Amino acid sequence: MGRQMTCTAPVNIAVIKYWGKRDPTLILPTNSSLSVTLSQDDLHSRTTVSIAPEYDQDRMWLNGIECPVSSNIRLVNCLQAAREQRKAMEAADSSLPSWSTWGIRIASVNNFPTAAGLASSASGYACLVYTLAQVLELPLTPSQLSRYARLGSGSACRSILGGFVGWEMGKLANGEDSLAYQVAPETHWSELEALILVVNDAKKDTSSTVGMQTTVKTSTLAQHRFASVVAERMQQMEQAIQDRNFEQFAKITMQDSNQFHAICLDTYPPIFYLNDTSRTIIRIVTTINELCPEIQAAYTFDAGPNAVIYAPKQHMPRLIQLFTYFFPAAHPLPSEEFFNDPYHCVPTGVTLGETLPSEYESLRDTFSVMPVGSVKRIIHTRVGDGPRVLSDP
Ligand code: DP6
């Protein structure tokens, strides 16, 4: 008889960006990074792992489609790391069942459509290794487990924990000290919320993996960032989180997003992830921060044009009103249940955005209403917890 387990894992969005590897096989970064784990009530990967003695080979299905395991070296590395640990446990204690010799089957789905414009590798690999560790009964702390997630995708190591999560770059060549750690749990600063402004849901031109290798090889600005910028920012950001100091959190978040996109531009040939809509979002947020003291917000952009806006809960209704005014809807929302929930996804421009409150008239002089569909949808979420077990064997 085999064993089976199902778990979910969250998405995370970095406020100090990881961009650059010192070891591309072990996925060891050139700088430490820090992220916010988003609520998996809204966005998550869900993975079932089964092991059985009769499975003759490892197999995986992603959103219902089988993906050959052997051609995915990162997946092979994750499975091998977990199996080796289990093997060592079995060698040390002969009473343990020999699960390390059984075949593994994995079925993973994301509850957020590709159209949400989010990378799924972080939540996907975090969910895979978390579920595998449950099935194989590996006695690992979340930090230790983050090493296995890192072998799948660098940013995945941060989705092993909830709340505010750091990834210490480490110094060792074998990566043993390159681990994720929790800076603060989600309950520490639960008023922090996020909006995801989906600008483009198409696959990005330059993948993170390829893009960051070119950056490491060619950008002199990146060398400056690794040597002289990130360590201090990590400390300042951890302090801002401990103090729940949104102003400081926002400043570092925006500066770090800017520097990440600056090193992309300094890469040769250059990499462009932001587009005109992204730049308008940046200008709107900085103008709001300057002209509207009652609203505070911070933008950040990963390897694509979609914006993530962090803001205190009480500022969200106003922010949503402004974004929906300046970015009218392209079309009604898709009918999926997820996108019909008014809390999780605001239909851009449909109801809220038709009028601009009189106190924001001055913004109308600075910005014109953007072409319909520049922002395709807005997802409203908050800080969340780490991976969860959904069912026992
Ligand atoms: C811009 O984790 O996707 O989102 O390690 O090659 O899988 P690989 O890259 P990935 O890169 C994420 C880059 C980023 C910044 C971040 O999440 O820190």
Outline the structure in words:
With about 400 residues, the chain is an alpha+beta fold. It is about 35% helix and about 20% strand. Helix 1 packs parallel to helix 2 (about 120-135) and helix 2 crosses helix 3 (about 140-150). The longest helix has 23 residues, at about 220-240. It starts with a strand and ends with a strand. The model is unreliable at about 330-355 (pLDDT under 50). Bound molecules: ligand DP6.
Keywords:
single chain; 393 residues; alpha+beta; globular; binds ligand DP6; GHMP_kinase_C_sf; sterol biosynthesis; nucleotide-binding; ATP-binding; lipid biosynthesis
How do the helices and strands line up, and which of them pair or pack?
Elements: E1 3-10, E2 12-16, E3 21-23, E4 28-29, E5 33-37, E6 44-52, E7 59-62, E8 65-67, H1 73-92, E9 103-110, H2 121-135, H3 142-152, E10 164-167, E11 180-184, E12 192-198, H4 208-218, H5 220-242, H6 246-265, H7 276-291, E13 298-301, E14 307-312, H8 316-326, H9 337-340, E15 345-346, H10 361-366, E16 377-382, E17 388-391
Parallel strand pairs: 7-9
Antiparallel strand pairs: 1-6, 1-17, 2-5, 3-4, 5-10, 6-9, 7-8, 10-11, 12-14, 12-16, 13-14, 15-16
Helix pairs in contact: 1-2, 1-3, 2-3, 5-6
Bound molecules: ligand DP6.
Residues 14, 17-19, 27, 33, 119, 121, 153-155, 208-209, 302-303 line the site of ligand DP6.
Keywords: ATP-binding, Lipid biosynthesis, Lipid metabolism, Lyase, Nucleotide-binding, Steroid biosynthesis, Steroid metabolism, Sterol biosynthesis, Sterol metabolism
GO molecular function, one term: ATP binding
Pathway: Isoprenoid biosynthesis; isopentenyl diphosphate biosynthesis via mevalonate pathway; isopentenyl diphosphate from (R)-mevalonate: step 3/3
